[in-house]
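Structure first, sequence second, as always.
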């Protein structure tokens, strides 16, 4: 009887990757092979964590010179496992269209914030959303108050004085920008642990604020 293919390509490729012990060497897919992969994938993650965060060096049974082909296959499997969630995060994003890109700096921040959100990096997504909103507000406020005055002001002053006084944003826009600022401050200065649940709402708020500021 012909086997049924998994519904998604990422699932199929992840299944196929299970055939390899150390690429390109193959082995019959079995519980022992999957256990072997899991064991050595975890060893790699411990070593990678040590390199990334200066954590205490893990005790390893194998050489810590990360073999490129081994690192490659571990990352491949991890990324394939992450694809379904990346798809769902992308589908959640609102369909917002900016008629023209007026400020490349804020757009660059916003685009990277979206990329971080999709890839499951909520703290980075929130911090970059805050940076995008701040950059766009500075451009709008500078047209009236001058670049020097705006650059010397913090984001709170830009929101409460310049943005409100100039009526750059509607009341709902002011609420959104404060939401973005507060979430960004929390990530950067106090409690990044809550970022995962807030990232989507903050990103959507930032996108809406930048959309509202078009032409200003």
């Amino acid at each position: 009887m012909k086997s049924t293919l998994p519904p998604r390509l990422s699932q199929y490729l992840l299944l196929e990757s299970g055939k390899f012990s150390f690429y390109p060497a193959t082995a019959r897919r079995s519980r022992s092979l999957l256990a072997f992969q899991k064991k050595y994938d975890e060893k790699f993650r411990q070593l990678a964590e040590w390199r990334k965060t200066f954590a205490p060096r893990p005790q390893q049974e194998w050489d810590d010179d990360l073999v490129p082909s081994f690192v490659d296959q571990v990352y491949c499997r991890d990324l394939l496992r992450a694809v379904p969630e990346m798809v769902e995060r992308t589908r959640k994003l609102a369909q917002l269209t900016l008629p023209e890109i007026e400020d490349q700096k804020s757009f660059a921040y916003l685009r990277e914030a979206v990329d971080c959100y999709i890839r499951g990096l909520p703290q980075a997504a929130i911090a970059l959303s805050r940076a995008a909103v701040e950059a766009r507000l500075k451009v709008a406020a500078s047209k009236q108050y001058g670049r020097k005055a705006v650059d010397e002001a913090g984001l709170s002053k830009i929101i409460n004085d310049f943005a409100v006084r100039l009526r750059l944003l509607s009341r709902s826009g002011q609420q959104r920008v404060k939401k973005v600022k507060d979430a960004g401050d929390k990530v950067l200065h106090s409690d990044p642990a809550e970022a995962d649940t807030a990232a989507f709402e903050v990103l959507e708020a930032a996108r809406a604020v930048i959309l509202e500021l078009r032409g200003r």
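Margin note: The two ends are 64 Å apart (CA to CA).
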